[in-house]
Amino acid sequence: MTARIIDGKAIAAALRADVAAKVAAAGFTPGLAVVLVGEDPASAVYVRTKDRAAREAGIAARTIRLPAGTSQADLLATIRALNEDPAIDGILVQLPLPPGIAPEAVIEAIDPDKDVDGFHPVNVGHLADGRPTLVPCTPLGIMKMLRAIGVTASGARAVVVGRSAIVGRPMARLLLSADATVTVAHSRTRDLPAECRRADILIAATGRPELVRADWVQPGATVIDVGINRLADGRLVGDVAFDACAAVAGAITPVPGGVGPMTVACLLENTLTAALHRRSR
Ligand code: NAD
């Protein structure tokens, strides 16, 4: 079998167009603040991508660049000012933060109603409780992608490899809310290949290049690759051995061009959601 290649770029483009249309109809301009601390080159690329995508959707994007030596107190003061700023609907602090700044303290300082990354404990709690409010962009994008290609989570066996707060855990909670039977596997899982082979929907979010091999994939399964790994030779690969797994899976996401564009599109949607919610109160 040769898998259908899931075109994340196209699905994301449709979502971005939908958000842009809703922003145009909203009668106001949502505001997104992206805070970047330090000079991490990958983070700088992500921030530029988010800024450009927001502008294209009619969202007023403000990137706040702070030097690597910024103290935690100064960063928290910046966040408090953004919390109070009526022009700002969404606040995103790009991770990772430089050493010496506790990410938990920073995330908890963000007004939960402006937490467009969905990392604040209040939003994490709502998701855990099955009442999602602002949901982390990557797993939200994956759920939209599954729906767009007609994959039904209800009743399916889903295996999520990775249990990070950013991807694995919220992914598992969304799949559970969509009535999948969910297994969360991780670095201590015994016989990971056997767990993966049970999956109708297999989500790999480990940051381990090409960890998932063809014989881990159930024939016909939907394989979603979250990983973004730069190899020593410069190649960009996911957490799934793409060519070999594409010969077994029913559908599979490429890297790049799969999950990544959905993450950005969902940030825009979350910003609009936050803006509409704040204005409805
Ligand atoms: P993380 O390092 O926080 O978590 C990795 C998880 O994988 C951990 O829970 C760990 O238990 C598990 N793991 C590690 N090695 C394993 C192994 N050998 N077998 C089984 N499980 C293992 O990473 P993260 O933030 O969740 O990101 C994961 C990957 O996804 C990274 O490559 C990251 O760059 C990428 N990512 C992509 C997007 C996107 O938009 N495409 C967004 C976020 C993260």
Rg (C-alpha, Å): 19 Å
Main β sheet profile: 6 strands, parallel
Which quaternary structure do these chains form?
single chain
How would you write the strand order of the largest sheet? Answer: 1-11-8-7-5-6
Number of helices: 10
Q: What is the typical, i.e. mean, pLDDT? A: 97
- How many structural domains are formed by the residues? 2
Q: Spans of 5+ residues with little confidence (pLDDT < 50)? A: none
CATH fold description of the largest domain: Rossmann fold
The rough form would be described as: globular
User: What is the CATH architecture descriptor of the largest domain?
Assistant: 3-Layer(aba) Sandwich
| Helicity range | 40-55%
Question: How does this model look, in words?
Answer:
- The protein is an alpha/beta fold.
- It folds into 2 domains: 27-112, Leucine Dehydrogenase, chain A, domain 1 (Rossmann fold); 136-260, 3-Layer(aba) Sandwich (Rossmann fold), CATH 3.40.50.
- It has 10 helices and 11 strands.
- The strands form 3 sheets. The protein has a 6-stranded parallel beta sheet. A 3-stranded parallel beta sheet has the order 3-2-4, sandwiched between helices.
- Strand 2 (31-37), helix 2 (41-56) and strand 3 (60-66) form a beta-alpha-beta unit.
- The longest helix has 21 residues, at 259-279.
